[in-house]
Amino acid sequence: MRTRWPPRQSGIALIVVLWILVLLTIVVGVYAVLARTESMQSRFLFDTTIARYAAEAGIHRAAYEMSNRDWETRWVPDGRPYAFNFGGAEVEVRITDESGKIDINQAGAELLSNLFISRGMEEAEAWHLADAIEDWRDADDLPRLYGAEEDDYFAAGYPYGPANMPFSSVAELQQVIGMSWQLFRDIEPMLTVDSTSGGRVNPAFASADVLATMPEMDRESAQRFVEERQTFHPVDQQALALPDGTMVSLQGGGRTFSIRSRATLDSGTWSEVQATLELGGDHRGRPFRVLRWRDNVEDR
Asked: In 46-76, which positions are buried (b, 16+ CB within 10 angstroms) versus exposed (e)?
């Protein structure tokens, strides 16, 4: 004999069953989403690690190529791109000889002021900043014509004065009176403290931005020169010349290089490493010394 449930109780039971099904569906759905998210995160971390080490491999490949004594096969450190595949990652490497940058410990006020003017600064303000940089790095307490020493810093509200010694890094330039964050970000890739060219810029390895600070150059002629230079090789017999006729050789340069290595996987995951290396080894027997190292720096 079958038991008959009252219609009201049957309806309540049906509602309870439906709610249980809804809750189970939600639980299963949440679990599926979490599992998929964790899988995606694991894949992203795996790809990022692969890209990171591929980019680091680009730094070591660049150091090897810069140690190559054969000018026929040696990479040219003028910022031109070199690409190769490493472990499934496409790696692009750009190398710049530090002699092609403006050394803030050696550059004179005229070169520095030209740099600031080329970035849109008024001439008077540019000379003030150039002299302030020279006052920061010199050993005396005597202000230059447009410069600044300790009293000027205190009067402007700074809790410190100039270091009165050479810059230890390009980043230290931010502490100079009159240097804005926006200007520093704009010019940082053009600067160095590691050049051995005696305050002169080597046009064989300089970027268009740096070349545009030279008296005989404007932005357009600098860009044309860079484009022409990247078609040349150190052993080419054809002469490479600046607009004023000065001959330029892609052989030579210094022993310190800025390297930018970017690795990209098929998934689109990428990693970038920037390093400044000095070739020649160290006391540990390594073939180069790392002066600076930065990961995934924002593009300028």
From this structure: ebeebbbbbbbbbbebbbebbeeeeeeebbb
Report whether pLDDT(2) > 60.
Answer: no
pLDDT in the model for residue 237: 61
Longest dimension (CA), the chain: 113
Q: Are 170 and 136 a contacting pair, CB within 8 Å?
A: no
Q: What is the CA radius of gyration of the chain?
A: 29
Strands 247-248 and 89-97: unpaired
Q: Residue 242 CB: number of other CB atoms within 10 A?
A: 17
Work out the angle between the directed axes of helices 109-118 and 123-137 (0-180°, nearest 10). 140
- Which of 87-96, 123-132, 210-219 has the least mean pLDDT? 210-219
Cβ atoms within 10 Å of 296's Cβ, excluding its own? 14
C-alpha to C-alpha distance for 106 and 113, rounded to whole angstroms = 14
Amino acid at 188: E
Provide the sign of the torsion angle of the four alpha carbons 191, 105, 129, 136, taken in this order: positive
- As a whole number of angstroms, the distance between CA 187 and CA 180 comes to 11
Q: Which of 126, 34, 93, 140 is nearest to 258 (CA)?
A: 93
Going by pLDDT thresholds of 50, 70 and 90, the confidence category of residue 38 is: confident
* pTM greater than 0.70 (yes/no): yes
User: Which residue from 188, 172, 179 is spatially nearest to 299, judged by alpha carbons?
Assistant: 188
